[in-house]
Input
Amino acid sequence: MAECECQNQRTLFAKKDKASCFAITRFILLSFFLGLVSCQLADNRIRGQIANTSGPNSEPPGFSCAVNIDASDPQSFGQGTEQLPFVLCGAGQLAALSDPGNSHLWDKYFQLQGDLAMTGPISPIGNSITPFSGVLDGNGHTISGINITSSGSHGIGLFGYTDGAVIKNITLQNSMIDAQGQDWAGVLIGKATQTKISNVTVESGIVTGTGSYYGGIVGDFRGELKDSTVDASSQVNGNTTVGGAVGSIYDAATCSRTSEERAIINNVQTHNDVVAVGNVAGGLVGQMNSAWGYGCLFVVTNSSASGAVSGANYIGGLVGYVHNGNISFSHATGDVNATGRAGGLIGEMDDQDAFSIDIYMTYATGNVTGGFRVGGLIGSSTNQNIYFSYATGDVVNTGTGSAGGLIGYQSGPSHRTAYCYATGSVTSTTGGQSGGLIGYLFQGHVFYSYSVSPVITSANYVGGVVGVPGSFWTIDHVFWDKQTNGVNLQCGAGACNDSYGKTTAEMKTASTFNSVDSTNWAFHADSGDDDTDFWELQAGEYPKLSAYTTNFSMYTFAGGTGSQADPFLIANPSQLNQIGPRLVFSNKYFRLTSDINMIADSAGFRPLQYFTGQLDGNNHTISNLTINSPGSSQMGFIGIGAQAYKEEPIIKNISFNGLSVTGLDYVGGVLGQGEGSMVADISLDGVAVAGNNGVGGVCGQCFSISNVTLASGNVTGANFYTGGLAGITGSINFSSYAGVVSGASITGGGVGQLNITSGPFQRLVSSKNLILGTVSGTGNVGGFVGIATRSEVQETESRASVIASLDQAGGLMGSFENGEINDCGATGSVSGTNAVGGLAGNAQSSTVSQSFAAGQVNGSGSNVGGYLGTTSGVNTYAGNFWNKEENPTLFDIGISGDVGDADQISGEMLINLKTESTYTNKGWDFLNIWIIQPGQNGDFPFLR
Output
């Protein structure tokens, strides 16, 4: 397998080449998504593309299947490399490849040069000992007649086990996979890890057996599956955990972002029926079960299922069971039948570490029958956020649990359901709780939604919206058609607002809704602004979500269709202003074709909302944009980024000149709030951002920032989490900020709070950043970071002065815990009250190595140190220095009785701090990382 060795990151950085730095930054970030934690890639198969200069469905020059191929030898032509893959022309070659005696070929590159018609049984390619780790490019061809019966081992499919494989551009036709009593079976793969699958079609594929984890394409899966289809003549039948495309996406408790333990399903359609004898079945995926949520990323987007799904418990039209995941722009239309929990889209979904939005832009139209917690969209939902979704199928509860037109059971005090509706009937035959929208609202909040579902029930509690509410719940501006569903009470029990029950005629009149809330219940007919509003109301109809009804022809762009391959082109302010908060554009792609001056058009600009697509600035500039909404949260050029940790940034390759944004909470120049969104390759100049909580020059809250330069900034936060680049983020790389940052608690020149939300996964890295200017706040104030938790900061400098009116102030960090600081420097002065240090105010259970602090340190209270203010837990130090000459009364660490390790934290005179040998004697790297040049950075070391 060919090897690819990355270039030295620091050498490239020293060249100050923007494109190279950005490429490396992307590599660093993707390393943590893809598990590429080594600089040297053992092979190219994850990201490589097979060289095929002849084009699809064509033979290489001078090649003939009839002449060059031995029908029983899979390596008779080619070298098995990316450039010269082994060519497969006949069924005998594929059969021979499946022989374990040829397992030495299972890490090679293969390419089909013709359709293959299999004539007899074969064995799976790859097993648990030697999984297939190579590449198969079907080249647009078909393999038909695959017939595999389990020999008593798990992992049954054309490929039994894969690890790090790439399989693409292939159709599998008339396949029979009989797993018998074994687990992990799929037409293409039985069990796949770190595998990328694209452009795969399964036609008339049968997967059957009495085991578990069966799928129309893959039995058990981790990796990326996209642009694939399973047709209606295919079937999946198993005991438990079966899905139309994927049986199971599951991780153990050890899953981390630094490994490939993730799954993204994008643009996959299934039309086949799915049957489980036992629990867990879904039209697309049986289960998405992540033990630690943020550690393992499980996402379904732009996908659908139309087949019928049946089983016992946890049965869904799209996914049977979800634990920590994200589903967007997806739908299910098949009927669902179960004896327990059942939902038209999802049987049961719960979240340990909630994404900002878990279910977004989804719908289900199939009828749903179940026996416990039954819903038109979701049977049971805990700790979710469900936005812009609907269900139209009839719901029947044959048991004693809860049933709702949208959700059977909702729990979790942070659970939010907003901008949703249900229209199908709700029938309960043996008691329980029944509601037109939600059966049992145990906890959570419901906003700006409605139900017209007739409720036909013998349930104990019946409500037009909710059967019965429990504790910690809110129902706000939620309507129901009391004439249609025959229920006069909003809730079957509890103190609800019955005034929102309306007649059918009133439910079809805009003033019924916008008279109580003209913002969240605004219709096209009200404003004449087309689909800027969330809702649309046609004469004689109930409200519909505008994103599902918009005609794109009413908009004028400079070109494009909005796809990733053919983005909408934007050439002027009016075209930019068309995007705004229109939901119909929220998953589209855009590209600028020229510089855009908004000086006369800012009033018409509204931030992009719930954006999951991408805006590529194409190296152009947007200038003189002002967004002034001091009473509104999630403000920025993009207000809300709803991405779920995609590998591509939400916005890139763009400059902003003269950008002013004012908002309430989560306010950023580029992005207001996007927990899973990346911002990359951006330059900003003349930026002013102001808000309350979560305020940053680039983003209020985002997942990561890379290769961003902000010059001449002024960022002001009145409360918590203020940063020159971000209020809250997970990592910052190859970025810089120059200007003033004024906050309150948790304020940093780069970021207010740097952390990963939760889970036992590896820490993210922030590297190669520079901060200049002034940083001020109350407590937890740092030149780079206010508070850092479970983060590694390396090769980062702060030359900013730091001023804190209260406790915990440091030249680099106010406070950090369970993290690392490596090869960092702070040269600005630091002042505060208690816990004040030249590098950090407080260090807890962390490592600090080969870093220095050269500024003056002043504290009016206790625990003031030349290097660290206070420490706790077990900390490790190596090769650190601070300015003893200008801080003669201070010790290494300010906490009483702790002077640190004299060999590893050393207070030095200025002459020594400006001498290279001081540092190299402690192992510092002045060849690749550090440099001292007279007249620069006060003659102190700085990063190359």
